[in-house]
Amino acid sequence: MENTATYYKKQKEFRIFAASTFSDLVVLKKKGEEKAFNELLLKTLPQIKRYITKRLATALSKGNLPHGKYRPDDFVDQLFITAYNHFDEVKNQKDFYPWLFKIADQLLEDTIVEEEFDEVFFQNIDDFTKPAWDAMEEKFSTDGDGDLVMMDELDDISYRNAPYVLNHVFVEDDNNEMIAKLDKELGEENIRRHTNMVLYHLPLPMRTVFEMATQFHLTAEEIAMIRGQGLEEVQKLLKNARNALETSFYTRYRGINY
Q1: Which of 73, 92, 160, 226 is deepest in the core (most CB within 10 A)?
Q2: pLDDT at 138 (0 to 100)
């Protein structure tokens, strides 16, 4: 788990760095130095671009976005314009990082066709057998895995190094023994692939809230602001995503002695 710990340490450090640029951006905006503003802003955007790329990759694989029409940099370019023109909306450095996600999220929502929700998957997730899960993963690896879409962008921003860890799913203290056994039996790569597969089939709001919380260290309050949702709704979506993932691990790997 050393690689996982290192990854999340870097994510937290990056968020601190993004906040630290806020005062300099304020000065540059007041001076009207748009070029210098954008050059500094660019240094704060790797995580935003990773978020954009992941959303686009999933939308492409689901058929909710036409192939070849959009690239992550198209959204980043628009984000520069929007961030500069509306920067005065940010009142303090604490709000700066989630505000950038809000802009990115709005740009994506305006472009990606609303996806259909596979209600059968969500309603019957506790009935899937291990062979059914295995077949689903085989198909996902061929048709639906975001890793196979827009590979250059994903490699450039180290998307492949973004792990999921079981304590994102099993949040109660009494699950520590089960987490340890799953970690030992499955390994980080199998955990990541299974989690990505389940998230792929969950409704977009649920998937987005879970990824914002676990991959980008945004609080429920920040996600509610970014998504324009109520706090209770965000908390419910996050809880439902975790419940679905926990159920999926249990039904697929119930042969492991918990």
Answers
A1: 226
A2: 81
- What six digits make up the tokens of 114? 């609303």
**pLDDT at residue 156, as a whole number:** 46
How many angstroms from the chain centroid is the CA of residue 216?
7
Q: What is the CATH number of the domain that holds 102?
A: 1.10.1740
Low-confidence ranges of the chain (pLDDT < 50): 1-2, 145-151, 154-161, 258
Whether residues 13 and 53 fall in one domain: yes
Structural domains of the chain, count: 2
Nearest Cα to 256, choosing from 188, 185, 191? 185
Q: In this structure, are residues 96 and 22 in contact, taking their beta carbons and an 8 Å threshold?
A: yes
